[in-house]
Amino acid sequence: MHAVVNTAVTPAPGFREALAFEWTKFTGLRSTLWTTAAAALVTVAGAVFVSLTRSLQPDDTVLGGSLTLSVVGLMIAGVVGALTVCGEYSSGTMATTLAAVPRRGRVPAAKTVLVSAVLYVVGLVSCTVAYLLGDAFLDGSYAQGRPLPALFGIAALFSVVGALGVAIGLVVRHPAGAVTVVIAVLLLPSLFGPLFGDLQRWVAGAAPTAALEKLTQTSDAAPEAVGSLGGWPSLALVTAYTALALAAASGVLCRRDV
Amino acid sequence: MSAVAVLPSVEDMIEARELTKRYGGRTAVDGLTFTVRPGAVTGFLGPNGAGKSTTMRLALGLVRPTAGSVTVAGRRYSELAAPLREAGALLDARAVHGGHTVRRHLLGLARSHGIPARRVDEVLGAVGLESVADRRARGLSLGMAQRLGIAAALIGDPGVLILDEPVNGLDTEGIRWIRALLKSLAAEGRTVFLSSHLMSELELTADRIIVIGRGRLLADTDMRTFIESNSPHATLLRTPAEESGRMRALLEARGAAVRPDAHGRWRVTGPTTTDIGELAREHRIAVHELTPCRSSLEEIYTALTGAAVEYRSTRSADANAEEELSCMPS
């Protein structure tokens, strides 16, 4: 066996190999592939539903109405991120992964790059298709909204929420627990925001869902509910705290016994 | 497997120095110092909960030591540039994502080190899993999962193999297979370190043996020395029933320990077989059977670890040993 793989000439594995490792695991599982597909399907299905039933408010935009269910797609994106980590803890493969990649910081980094890249494409394609469907079926009585460059921002938000899911998965480890936390982070700020009175704009406005509402230009994105921070600054805010959460979660992974 | 023998190299050693791991108030590994050398199969023996798995996880950098250190191929595992090429490990055969196929599981590990995909087929062949390569891991029997775990350990063609209870779940054919495989890997100059809680598993496989109990080192020696130095000589003696009482009294007068065995014989420890024979002749006692033997390794192991057993049933381990008392002709 020694003759087959010559250790002397092959370079030491680095981040590229760690990423290839994660890609191989991600694409080899029906569960992660279907969950990712569900994020796209639910977003497109929302546009079809709204188009057929015209169940959008008179003051809504075509873009916002078409992307009604992108908020559910966003939640599933977070779940995809969490599952790429928690699936390893529940199956016990985290030890194998860290034995193969003992420079532990590379593991969350590779997972984040993978999940973010996949979700960017999934978010961009599904939201564009959803918008085009809505645009085709909804008549001119609604304001159009400006799809560009908003669609790129929405796709980026899918990426960022996927990365937030990775961070949550690293800390929580248990799949059911991590999925619950992902949903809670996305759902609770807008649910409990009104309880905070004047602070509602800050509590609900900082949530990833608020950034989504602003970017999709739906009528729900009223300043009194989600603050007056624009769509792009909101995206930047979500990206910033996701980066902090990931850094902290990677630190936890590096210190913890497996 | 290539026929090219690789010379043993100090680069492939596992070295633990005062290795200690405490979890809260419980000490799982307690000041272990040992060296596992290339070119031999080293058995790592201890009762359940003795700290074998923790020691292996420490060696792989998965668990951080409270004190002391452990190195693989001369470095801390986390500092190895290409760890799977230096050391392959099987910690838990069930630790495979059930949704992955056998091939995919190995392919991921190969890609983590830029190892070409054909190596996956090689290791599948080496462990005899070609026919289930495209089956999902959740459908594997424990025996097949153990083979997959060994394939994963071999993927980087490493000089060091760390295998935690690899014999668990294997059938007779599988046990024979793994024994031959491990011996051939050691013969190629690799360091083979495997744990077990059963002496009988290691007796025929290991050249060297490290025994621990409650996290502490109890023995670190080669297998033959271990057997010879630890097995008190005993002799099975059968005399006519009417003289057996007298014989026992004579032996005990000379400081021998005499116990009846299940077949109506005396099991005598202390004097040599020759002395017993001479003694019988002196007193004109007929001898119907005189069999020299030594304690089985299982007995030695039970005696050695008896004080160090972490989880003990209310029925004492000694009572069990007494009942299963056996004697291997030496």
TrEMBL record, chain A:
The chain crosses the membrane at residues 33-52, 64-86, 113-133, 148-171, 178-196, 232-254. The keyword Transmembrane applies. PANTHER family: BACITRACIN TRANSPORT PERMEASE PROTEIN BCRB, INTEGRAL MEMBRANE PROTEIN-RELATED. Keywords: Membrane, Transmembrane, Transmembrane helix. This is ABC transporter permease subunit. The keyword Transit peptide does not apply. The lineage of its organism: Bacteria, Bacillati, Actinomycetota, Actinomycetes, Kitasatosporales.
